[in-house]
Each structure stands twice: as structure tokens, then as C-alpha cells.
Amino acid sequence: MQGFDAVGIAPARLSAEEGRQLEDFVAFGLHGTMDWMAETLPRRRDPTGMWPEARSAIVCAMNYGPPEGLDPLRRLERHDRGIVSVYALGKDYHDVLKGRLKHVAQWLASRTGADVKVFVDTAPLMEKRLALRTGIGWAGRHTCIVSRDWGSWLFLGVILTTAELEPDAPSKNCCGSCTACLDICPTGAFLGPGRIDARRCISYLTIEHRGTIDRSLRPLMGNRIFGCDDCLAVCPWNKFARPATEERLRPRPELIDPPLAELAALDEAAFRRMFAGTPVRRAGRDRFVANVLIAIGNSGNDELAESARIRLSDGSPLVRAMAVWALSRLLPRPAFSELEGIMRPAEEDAMVLAEWRAAMKEREPA
Predict the structure, then answer these.
(1) Is 121 known to be catalytic?
(2) Annotated catalytic residue: which of 24, 35, 115, 121?
């Protein structure tokens, strides 16, 4: 149906327990700096909180599996390259899914006379919770939907309608005793099965987080510069996964593991050109280049030090701060101390100065 790989129907309501779990997630601060989660909590906890007249939810899923030869875990071995999550290598899924959903919604409205609204990950709606009720898949321990047919690579879109539709039966959870997704997380972001601390999740840190990333987490990020696929890629159910068939979701060749040196040199205009129409633009140039500099600091490649040194004069304090951190990891202590003596006196931003102080303290002789 309209290019979707799986479709299911559920009542447009969630349980009080599911609402309480979301409240607890926010109350414990596990959402980090995603303030919009707290602000929209009363509406987000149940679909009828956003649209009281909604009676049914049609959940549509589209596969975005990586193409043959693009192993998300093997990509991490190229330390001089920047790794963008598979989902962000092609056209922004919001645009792709929303257009398809509107066609389905219009058809439904014309057949039933019911009101309809479409949603793709931008409204206060718990899409995954609704999907669990439709038989599309079950909740993996990594909190994402797992499908017998598509593994972990699924985008979700939702149509809410005032029509009373016959619901589908939920899927049985087939994770068994497997904990591969929990075990592989580089930053230990999982508090247990189905429980994640977003503040430690690399996808959150490289996309949503505001300000500098905690120094203890930076070395664990490796060369992941936008998102992280580890917990999805390791899922055994991906043995049934297939590459995306929607042309617009397929990776653009130039975005597959570009050199970190080239990415560090991007100015605002070049960043916009390179990532036009992709989800990467959501991070913004400054956040993105800061992520690139963390990857440079993790590369162990002293040939990349010059790419970081140039960014010490960047217009963004966040970029300058991460350039300091990268250089503190790549340069010998005498060279770093000399550079600090040149650059630090002219620096006025408190965030950047804090990075200089922390780096110098770490490099004090024992």
C-alpha cells in the first residue's frame, strides 16, 4: 500500500501504565535536554490527549535496510572516516513517509467520510507504542520495533482517524534470552531491557544534545558523527532484513563514510549543500562539525591534527571547544602546551576556556 512494507491497525489509545512510564522517564531526567518531551507530556501520554475524537490508529512501516555491502558495524573500523547513521544517508524520511501517508489518509477519508490526521515523528505521539498493538513487530530490548520480516530497520508513520476500524492482533515478543543490543552499546546507555538513558545515547548526543558532550563519553563515541546504529545492526533478526526498496531512502554515495578532514572543513554553506534534503541538516553545521572533531580526537591519527588546529579560529565556540579536545588527544604534550600559550590568551568564551583548562590539567605530569 503506497510503498509501505507493513501496515497495522490499533485503537487510538494507550494504557495508563504506558503514560506513567513516560512520566517516569521525564521525571528522572532521562530525556536530557529534549525539553519538548516535558512540555508536551500531557498530550504525548495518549493519542486522545492530542486529538480527543481519534478512535483508530493506522501504523505504516517502511523498510530502510542498508544495501548489500554496507555493514554498519564494519564501517566503524575506518577511523579516518565519519560515520552517519544509515537512516540519514538518503532523503529525509519525514518527507518520504508523510507524502505516502497523505495518499492513504485521503483514500480512507473518501471511503469512510471520517476525519484523518497524519504524523511522522514530529508530533507528541508515541508511535512505537501504537505499533506494538498492530502486529507490525514487537519491542526489542533496545526499545525499537523488531520485525520478523524486516529486522530492526523500520520507519514508522501514523494515521489517526475518527473511524472505528477493526484492530489487528499484537505480535509475540521473539527476543528470547538475547541481549546483544544491550551488550554492544558503546556508552552503556541501557539501564535494562527496554530502558534507555538518552543522556548516554550517541544518537541523542550527536543530534539532540545542547552544549558540550561530557568528557567521559567522548572517547566512547569513536567516529560516529550523526546517530548510532550499533544496537540495531547487531540484532539477529536482521538475517531477514532486506535493502530499502524506496529509492529516496537509499544512501547517497557521497555520504557514505566521507573523510573526517573534509567534513571538518565544512562552512555553513558547504554543510547545507552536502546534506541538503537529509536528516543531517537537523543537527546544524556547528553541532555537526563539533561531532566531527570528537571523531578526529578519537582517530589516533596525528595527520588529522591540522584539521582540528584550523578550527581553533572557528566562529562557533562549540567547534573551537571540541577542536581543543581533539588536539589534546592528538598532539604531544609539549606541542599542545605551546599551542595553548598562543591561542588561549585571545579566547574569551567561557566554554572554550574551560576546555583549555581541563585539557591542560589532564596533561599535567603525574
Answers:
(1) yes
(2) 121
